């Protein structure tokens, strides 16, 4: 095979592969977006479940259980202001009963709020 033939074959291959590469990139980007959207949706569903469960437990005076649910929700969306207020309220109640929760409340107020 001559040098010119080799250059023509390589050039043709590159030109023919461009649409395939472009299509693959578009597909990959769509897959990434779909995966991210599904992940965010699962987080939102889990967060809402944990918040609702925590509120129900709080209303049933199961404060320690409510705190556990709120803490799990906090791992998903730590910047949620309503959740942070629920955590503070719950920790305040628990702190009155057990000192370990006072330490957690202090740490939460210093680091997260």
Element order, helices and strands?
HHHH
Mean pLDDT metric:
90
The amount of beta strand, in percent, is under 5%
CATH topology: Serine Threonine Protein Phosphatase 5, Tetratricopeptide repeat
Total number of helical segments?
4
Helix/strand/pairing category? mainly alpha
Largest β-sheet summary: none
The gross shape turns out to be rod-shaped
Structure description:
The chain is mainly alpha-helical and 113 residues long. The chain has four helices and no strands. The longest helix is centred in the first third of the chain and has 57 residues. The chain has one domain: Serine Threonine Protein Phosphatase 5, Tetratricopeptide repeat (Alpha Horseshoe). The relative contact order is 0.07. Helix 1 packs antiparallel against helix 2, helix 2 runs antiparallel to helix 3 and helix 3 runs antiparallel to helix 4.
What tags apply to this protein structure?
Serine Threonine Protein Phosphatase 5, Tetratricopeptide repeat, rod-shaped, 113 residues, 4 helices, single chain
Give a short summary of the structure.
With 113 residues, this protein is mainly alpha-helical. The chain is 88% helix and 0% strand.
Outline the fold blueprint:
Blueprint: H1 3-59, H2 63-76, H3 81-95, H4 99-111
